[in-house]
Amino acid sequence: MSEKILLALSTFPDIETARRISNQLITEKFAACANILPGVESIYRWKEKIESGNETLVFFKLSEDRQSAFQKKLRSLHPYEVPEILFVPVAGGLPDYLRWVTEN
């Protein structure tokens, strides 16, 4: 398979926001799939203070050629000033699934 697949991770303030943005990204074909994991506890430093809170984590699957467009679109929709948008290359997987991600 010549097309590389990426796993993109992003956290959201609540499940409703995660669902709304995920639905838009899938509908507009920026990603093939989104897995929403509610109830993630995050601890982080922000503006010189230690913060903590409950967030919703989303795993997006997309082809590498959509990375730039996906990041730009997610950034425009995301409510955070500096959203978490991380890309992890997928080293392998079921060929039929990887093909499906590329096609969608």
Fraction in helix = 25-40%
Number of domains: 1
- What fraction strand? 35-45%
Quaternary structure of the protein: single chain
Reading the helices and strands in chain order gives: EHEEHEH
Largest sheet, strands/sense/barrel: 4 strands, antiparallel
Low-confidence stretches: none
Q: Please give the alpha-carbon distance between the first and last residues.
A: 15 Å
Number of strands: 4
Number of helices: 3
Structural description of this entry:
- The chain is of the alpha+beta class.
- It has a single domain (5-103), classed as Alpha-Beta Plaits.
- Helix content is 32%, strand content 39%.
- The protein contains three helices and four strands; from the N terminus they run βαββαβα.
- It has helices spanning 15-27, 67-77, 95-103; strands at residues 5-12, 33-46, 49-63, 86-89.
- The chain has a four-stranded antiparallel β-sheet.
- A hairpin with a 2-residue loop joins strand 2 and strand 3 (49-63).
- The longest helix is centred in the N-terminal third of the chain and has 13 residues, at 15-27.
- It is elongated.
- The two termini are 15 Å apart.
- The model has no long low-confidence stretch (mean pLDDT 95).
Task: Please give the structural blueprint.
Layout: E1 5-12, H1 15-27, E2 33-46, E3 49-63, H2 67-77, E4 86-89, H3 95-103
Antiparallel strand pairs: 1-3, 1-4, 2-3
